[in-house]
Protein: NADH-quinone oxidoreductase subunit NuoE
Amino acid sequence: MPELPAPDYPAEVRTRLEEDAREVIARYPDSRSALLPLLHLVQSEEGHVTRTGMRFCAEMLGLTTAEVTAVATFYTMYRRKPSGDYQVGVCTNTLCAVMGGDAIFEELQSHLGVGNGETTEDGKVTLEHIECNAACDYAPVVMVNWEFFDNQTVESAKALVDELRAGRPVEPTRGAPLCTYKETARILAGFPDARPGAVEAGGSAGPASLVGLRLAKGEVTPGRVVSPRSADAPQDEAPPTHPSSHDAPQRTSASDPHHPAGPVAEEGE
Structure:
């Protein structure tokens, strides 16, 4: 059977969202360019993108609901069903996986009693695996509402979700203080984060991310990058030649004279 038209928002909600939507649309020379932030806006209202939200976006931008649906279903950052206050994403891409991401994700599924993309019964945590958090130098990485929790272990990740479910504050390794998923969606829609000090806490790239830049600038003895998991390591050691074990040269066929990479015969033989 054909699906009935989506219901509209209650009048007071519609009025408030229209005011916000007009502010967003005014930023763009072509109104349809505002679709992505408007989807974040309606997601901030209900915690996911509903049929009502897509109808609202279509009406505000003069689009069809099919056009809006095509975009909303393409990007995984838009939720299509109710989800938790905290989106816990575990990177399971190559480097994070081999550094422990797969083990973290498997253990969290068991610990929380949910599968990928599912939400705990208390509505606090939605667990998902993420292909890449763009933070390979801090692997394995977990993100909560897009804030970084670096150098995780199975135990630290379990403690993290326990704190979230208990309503106790947790501090990201880098970036702004944590807020709920609805609050995050409103920020992504382009509205300022009004929490005191939140913008200043955003910070910049961490030391591990800047090692290559320092080397490119000619700094021959960059500071040692130490994982928080080994923060009790002696701090008075001389910096190693290579700032990270990931950068250390490995003996391969290209570097081992006894096992050359190419043919050993002279040219022409």
Notes: The CA atoms of residues 83 and 126 lie 6 Å apart. The beta strands are 86-91, 118-119, 125-130, 142-144, 147-149. The chain has eight helices and five strands.
